[in-house]
Amino acid sequence: MIKPGIVVSCQSEGNDPFNNPKSLALFAKAAEMGGAVAIRSEGIIKTRQILSTVTIPVIGLMKGLFEDGYVKNTRKEKEVLDLINIGTKIIAIDATARPACGFDSGTEFIGHIKRKYDILVMADVSCMNDAILSELAGADYVSTTLSGYTPDTASKDQSNPDFDLVSIAVERLNIPVFGEGRVNSAIDVKRMKDLGVYGVVVGSAITRPRLITQRFARAFNNDEF
């Protein structure tokens, strides 16, 4: 369903002024007008609004937290069902090795979901082992979303995308690979493309004006960029 190209992650949190369904749907529409091939969206209400606003594919997910405070993406079957019931055709699922909700790993959960429901799954991985097991479990796409955001990968460079993981995944997998995580510039996108990715997911650099402004303000004030 997803063509090769740029996927825009339209998400917002906390007291950000854009943290509402209408604003995020407008971001999604602007991204579509700008040439995005798909949208990533979190939450039922926001995803429903975006689904009714754009014509390109929407990748839905539900965020939560593990007991250690690290983020997890769509690790409950009810979350999958809720997304399916609003018309989501592609669902991003946490593919890391951490147990949750009765499954020993994300890839075990992906296998269960693929056997039970007629949907496409984007496996959000943190490392190459996650990626390999995701393909074996039946995932339709792999995205490097969680590299740097798990206990085992927290030491990764937090200022740049994980180009090494992207490169190895492209070489070893037979399903489409999306580069995601800390993509801050067109230069990052070009490098991902040169590595052979099917697509690149860009989030904060496009849809978080507060964070974008902070980067420019720090540069002006000669603070650490």
Question: Can you describe this structure?
Answer:
With 225 residues, the protein is α/β, with parallel strands linked by helices. The protein is built from nine helices and ten strands. It is 39% helix and 18% strand. The N and C termini lie far apart (37 Å). Helix 5 links the parallel strand 7 and strand 8. The protein has a single domain, classed as Aldolase class I (TIM Barrel, Alpha-Beta Barrel). The strands form two sheets. An eight-stranded parallel beta barrel has the order 1-2-3-6-7-8-9-10, surrounded by seven helices. The chain is globular.
Secondary structure topology:
Blueprint: E1 5-9, H1 21-33, E2 38-42, H2 44-51, E3 58-61, E4 63-65, E5 71-73, H3 77-85, E6 90-94, H4 106-116, E7 120-124, H5 128-137, E8 141-143, H6 163-172, E9 177-180, H7 186-195, E10 199-202, H8 204-207, H9 209-220
Parallel strand pairs: 1-2, 1-10, 2-3, 3-6, 6-7, 7-8, 8-9, 9-10
Antiparallel strand pairs: 4-5
Helix pairs in contact: 1-2, 4-5
Question: Can you give me a brief rundown of this structure?
Answer:
With 225 residues, this protein is an alpha/beta fold. It contains nine helices and ten strands.
List the keywords.
single chain; alpha/beta; TIM Barrel; two-stranded antiparallel sheet; 9 helices; 10 strands; 39% helix
Say how many strands there are: 10
The poorly predicted ranges are none
> What is the tally of helical segments?
9
Structural class: alpha/beta
Which superfamily, in CATH terms, is the homologous superfamily? Aldolase class I
How many structural domains does the protein architecture include? 1
Mean pLDDT: 96
Beginning-to-end CA distance, first to last residue: 37 Å
